[in-house]
UniProtKB/TrEMBL annotation:
Membrane disposition: Peripheral membrane protein
Entry keyword Iron-sulfur: no
Signal peptide: 1-20
Protein name from the UniProt record: Endoplasmic reticulum oxidoreductase 1 beta
Disulfide bridges in this chain: 77-82, 377-380
Organism: Mastacembelus armatus (zig-zag eel)
Length: 451
């Protein structure tokens, strides 16, 4: 029904991703997992990694202080680093829980799991004075641009720059009912009810008109429009985030030294075919799906950045030139990669205009961004917001094909626009997916060795 979008997925399923060797021949789109892996791990990952270390991309402006608008009962926990689920002191220390039986590690003996989660989830908001001065200049530059849409976070006085390099996405110990509720709410968002086809859900409502029962149920089926596409995107994001947490797990902490690295047991629990009753494979398929979607968005948005006057402004012309060169290199690699899919097929079954659909996606992502304000752990909130904004930006691009094509060559402030925040989120979000595919490769090696 959704046509081309699923063309590569069944093959990934067959290959078993983890338990067996990964060999996927994906004839419909000339793609296979190996080619995506090779392309990403050799061409994309090293460059995106370098890009995200540059000044333009390493500082993300975000409001981490917005209260959760959905469940007031967490309201009492307003302290920035608080509201990790309370748990009894008697809980097993994390040093033991992580499968690392180092009873002599300081952390294992002195910190409860909650205290540690709180500490690991805290944001390091250190910024040099020089950066702070630069931000004022950036703001002046960005204000002079003409952007067509802004998110609440951007204009809020509570929005602050965070140095992403000082706050890597990794294990924080944030889990339990609070984390579960957040993901659950996000998954609940996956049903679109476009206002353009609004009809009351109650089958007995008078406006049902002359439909016979069958027609009505068919219509009802069609109501949750792109549910499956949306679900796959969210699931892919969820998988990606979990891979990062498994790959950057706190393996040991003691004597003032933290050791981070891959936790195979944790990885198996989330992705192993047998341990997840097949769910794990589906989760990983969705990661590849999401990767290709964002790749497509970058391909589409390249002309926006290729215009000579578009600079990634930090005020340092040499730095800005080098950053832009690197970004264009990435676009060139993406253009040379043959495995693109046709996003038009994504919504081919529905006669809803791209404009309407774009608005629907925008609203849903805005809501997801609000749900992110309910994430208890600050660092998780930061990366959650960044990655959903990145995906939201990718979708905005995919729905703006015409606008990008019609960009005036010499007029910077007309037509399709991206804000700095969107650009930073887009490239860092894609960088996270690229990292996941890279880390997945490492996990496969580790699992092979451990067999
Ligand atoms: C934050 O990062 C800086 C620079 O790496 C470091 O010196 C400082 O100790 C960190 N602060 C916290 C609270 O971890
Ligand atoms: C940064 O600026 C603050 C306030 O302006 C000042 O107190 C501090 O000494 C400065 N730090 C450095 C390292 O220059
Ligand atoms: C946004 O998400 C919340 C929490 O899941 C939900 O209660 C609310 O109905 C959603 N709002 C919209 C406009 O979709």
């Amino acid at each position: 029904m959704l046509g081309g979008i699923y063309f590569f997925l069944p093959f990934l399923a067959l290959s078993g991703l983890i338990n067996s060797e990964l060999t996927g021949v994906l004839d419909d789109c000339f793609c296979d997992v190996e080619s995506i892996d090779v392309f990403n791990n050799l061409k994309i990952y090293p460059r995106v990694r370098k890009l995200t270390e540059r000044a333009y991309f390493r500082y993300y402006r975000v409001n981490l202080k917005r209260p959760c608008p959905f469940w007031p009962d967490d309201g009492h926990c307003a302290i920035k680093d608080c509201h990790v689920e309370p748990c009894p002191e008697s809980k097993i220390p994390v040093g033991i829980k992580s499968g690392n039986y180092n009873k002599y590690s300081q952390a294992a003996n002195t910190m409860s799991e909650c205290e540690q989660a709180k500490e690991l989830g805290a944001i390091n908001s250190t910024l040099s004075n020089k950066s702070k001065e630069a931000f004022a200049d950036w703001a002046r530059h960005d204000d002079a641009q003409d952007h067509f849409c802004e998110l609440d976070d951007e204009t809020s006085p509570d929005a602050e720059y965070v140095d992403l390099l000082l706050n890597p996405e990794r294990f924080t110990g944030y889990k339990g009912p609070s984390a579960w509720r957040v993901w659950n709410s996000i998954y609940e968002e996956n049903c679109f009810k476009p206002r353009s086809v609004y009809r009351p859900l109650n089958p007995l409502a008078p406006s049902r008109g002359d439909d016979d029962g069958e027609g009505f149920y068919k219509w009802l089926e069609g109501l949750c429009l792109e549910k499956r596409v949306f679900y796959r995107l969210i699931s892919g994001l969820h998988s990606s985030i979990n891979i990062h947490l498994c790959a950057e797990y706190l393996l040991d902490e003691g004597w003032g030294r933290s050791v981070w690295g891959p936790n195979i047991r944790e990885f198996r629990q989330r992705f192993d075919t047998a341990e997840t009753k097949g769910e794990g494979t589906r989760r990983l398929k969705n990661l590849y799906f999401l990767y290709l979607i964002e790749l497509r968005a970058l391909y589409k948005v390249a002309p926006y950045f290729e215009r000579a006057f578009v600079n990634l402004y930090t005020g340092n012309a040499r730095e800005d030139g080098a950053t832009k060169d690197l970004l264009l290199q990435i676009f060139n690699e993406i253009k040379a990669f043959p495995m693109h899919f046709d996003e038009k097929s994504m919504f081919a079954g529905h006669k809803i205009e791209a404009k309407t659909l774009k608005e629907e996606f925008r609203l849903h992502f805005k809501n997801i961004s609000k749900i992110m304000d309910c994430v208890g752990c600050s660092k998780c909130r930061l990366w959650g917001k960044l990655q959903t904004q990145g995906l939201g930006t990718a979708l905005k691009i995919l729905f703006s094909e015409k606008e990008i094509k019609n960009l005036p060559e010499h007029s910077p402030s007309k037509g399709f626009q991206l804000t700095r925040q969107e650009i930073v989120a887009l490239l860092n979000g894609f960088g996270r997916l690229s990292t996941s595919i890279y880390q997945l490769h490492n996990f496969r090696q580790l699992l092979k060795e451990n067999r």
